[in-house]
Design a protein that fits this description.
The chain has helices at residues 2-27, 49-62, 73-79, 95-102, 135-139, 144-162, and strands spanning 40-44, 66-72, 87-93, 116-122, 128-133. It is of the alpha+beta class. It starts with a helix and ends in a 6-residue tail after the last helix.
Length: 168
């Protein structure tokens, strides 16, 4: 029963976030997409795109996380006839966190949120940004082991990017 409730809460939170993003964007297609700040976090990098990618890769390894894959969305889209500014999505995992969720049948449903993702992209202003889902905030909707794991992994991700971003 708890798994069903958690699943419904996850679907509800993600659906509301999507609807908010979609409704905002549809109001005026020429306006930039407005995100729900509690769902996504975006920080300006201290470095250019290439340096940010290199430094992020090093920080992931330094903090003993595993880099599953880096999706080069600019290259993928270029192969399909579309030109976009540089963007790479890092999929990273830490076995100490993922095993706590994936070893329990009732918690495996949240595997759709795994592995953690960090995006590095350049905007038309020439600056580089790092974005990620605010899993620390999302974790509160679950409770239990899922909240524990998501909160801890969220803190680790912030440590990983901490030296790369401009803080106020």
């Amino acid at each position: 029963m708890k798994t069903v409730i958690k699943s419904i809460l996850l679907i509800l939170v993600l659906s509301i976030s999507y609807l908010q993003l979609n409704a905002t964007n549809k109001k005026n297609q020429n306006m930039p997409l407005k995100t729900n700040e509690s769902t996504f976090l975006e920080s300006e990098s201290k470095y250019n795109f290439t340096e940010t990618v290199e430094k992020l890769t090093a920080e992931i390894e330094k903090n003993t996380w595993k880099l599953s894959v880096v999706h080069d969305l600019q290259e993928t889209l270029k192969k399909n006839g579309s030109e976009v500014l540089p963007i790479k999505v890092f999929a990273l995992c830490h076995p100490k966190y993922s095993s706590k969720i994936l070893s329990r049948d009732e918690e495996r449903i949240v595997s759709t949120l795994m592995p953690c993702r960090i995006s590095v992209y350049e905007k038309s202003n020439g600056k580089t940004y790092i974005s990620r889902m605010n899993t620390g905030s999302l974790a509160k909707t679950f409770g239990g082991i899922i909240e524990e794991v998501m909160t801890a992994s969220s803190k680790d991700v912030e440590i990983i990017i901490g030296n790369l971003i401009i803080t106020d």
